[in-house]
Structure formats: C-alpha cells, structure tokens
Amino acid sequence: DCRALEVVPLKGAMTNEVYQVRWLTGGGEEKGEGEYRKVLMRVYGEGVEVFFDREDEVRTFECMSRHGHGPRLLGRFPTGRVEEFIHARTLSAVDLRDPEIAAIIASKLREFHHLDMPGPKRVLMWDRLRNWLKTAKSVCPSDEAKEFRLDNLEKEINALESEFSGEDQCIGFCHNDLQYGNIMIDEETKALTIIDYEYASFNPIAFDISNHFCEMAADYHSEEPHILDYTKYPDLDERKRFVQTYLSSSGEEPDAEKIKDLMNNIEKYTLASHLVWGLWGIISVGSFA
C-alpha cells in the first residue's frame, strides 16, 4: 500500500536527492506495531552529467553490489534507483581525526583500491581535469575566468602530469571523493562501508589518499561549509600512521623507504586534488546557480 510508505529526506548528499523510505511489516500495521523495513531511494541530480557519465556510475554501483561492497542494488527507474538501507552511522568531520576510525579507513581503502573492476585500468584524472577545465571556461563569465586564471590552468595540468608520469606509481580503483559523508560505520562491529561511487575510477592511489587528507579540512555541516580549515589537515605523525596502516593491511610490514615514498607522492597529489575540486566548484556555480 503506497499510502503506508513514509518518505524522509536525508541531508548531506551533494549530487543527488536521497530519501529513506520505510513501511511497517510483520502483521502489526493496524495496531501500529510490527517492524519497519527501510530502503534508500536515490534521485539523480539534474545536470550532473557534466561531471561524470551516469551509465558508468551505475555499472560501477552494480559491480560493487554484486561483489558485496557497499549497499545492494534493489531496483532502478529512469531518474534514480533504490538501494539497500545500510544500518550504520555516517561519519562526521570529527571522526576522520579519530585514530581508531582512521586506521579502519586506511585498511578499508587499501581493500577498495585492489578491487578488480571492469573497464580499462588507466589513469583518468588528467583527462577529467582537462574536460572539467573546458566546461569551466564555457560556464564562467570572462571576468571571473580571468580572476581564476583559467587560461593558465591547462599549463599547470600538463606540468603536473609531466611531473608525476615518471614516478613509480601504484594504480588502483580509487573512490576520488572520500569525504566523511561517503563513509559509514557500524557502531557495534566497527565494519566500515564506503558509499557513493559517482567519481570512482582508476587513478594513482596516492591521489585518493591525498584527497582524503584534504577532506579532513572540511565540515559540510557547518554554517560555512565552503570554508576549509587547514589547521585540521593531518599532521606528519597522523599521515605517517595512516600510510603505515594502509600498507601493512596487506599482511606485510612495509619498510621505511616505502612509507616515505608514498607519503611524498601523497603530498604532491594534493595539488591535483585542489585543482579537481576548484574546477568542480566553478562548474557547480556556473551550471546550477
């Protein structure tokens, strides 16, 4: 009975509209008893195709669902889908700095990076940056484009790609948007689930970790969610602890040189992370304002 459905909007989603849909089961409907069954309904945001290919995102979600990662896919409709409702808590900005939770994230991220996903296993980020730059130029007023120095960014993107191409890098399946709102934790079991794969692709793992570190400066539930506080960026000891946990989660203890190399690459890729989300912000304002 569709009239018995309760639909509750959920906050925190930036690209889509997300709702909890629940209804009573177990024969206690008339008395208001019984248990609630819940699903999550995701309605795709309009115009987000400028950022990613929706069909690629759906294929990724279906593959993750089949392999037991993330919520199960329960159904699709033209403008969205229905997913399993995960009975877990979405992390907060403060959680990312908790040493115990950070260690769980590091181990889970290593597992995520080693997923054998379909499709070409080549680095996507440089093509994405160039495509986003082209879009940003098309939606940005000329005076703002000059202020943002968009005409110079292609040189910077080329310089970064050239700088990093010679590195001995590890390529893996990256989430590319590992902010706290895309991580859920079961309080009892401490099992962690990474959700929302709109931007997921193969990339250098150092980029994914660097982006996660940058996200520690953000609080999207504050009065000024667009202001990043880099005093919250993890210090050297926190970064080293995260990298050591990440590398050792495979069962082998990494040597000091391996830890140092990955940490250095992570710091370099913060530059690319800033470019990615800077262009994302310009396109978002220009396309959806």
Automatic annotation (TrEMBL):
Protein's UniProt name? Choline kinase N-terminal domain-containing protein
Recorded coiled-coil stretches: 143-170
UniProt family annotation = Belongs to the choline/ethanolamine kinase family.
One Pfam match: Choline_kinase
Q: Name one GO cellular component term.
A: cytoplasm
Source organism superkingdom? Eukaryota
Which keywords fit this entry according to its UniProt record? Coiled coil
Q: Which GO terms describe its molecular function?
A: choline kinase activity; ethanolamine kinase activity
Q: Which lineage ranks, top first, belong to the organism behind this chain?
A: Eukaryota, Viridiplantae, Streptophyta, Embryophyta, Tracheophyta
The portions of this protein that span the membrane are: none
Instruction: Note the InterPro entries from the entry.
Output: Kinase-like_dom_sf
The record lists the organism as Aegilops tauschii subsp. strangulata
| GO BP, sorted A to Z | phosphatidylethanolamine biosynthetic process
Q: Which Gene3D superfamilies match?
A: 3.90.1200.10, Phosphorylase Kinase, domain 1 (3.30.200.20)
The answer, when asked if Lipid biosynthesis is one of the entry's keywords, is: no
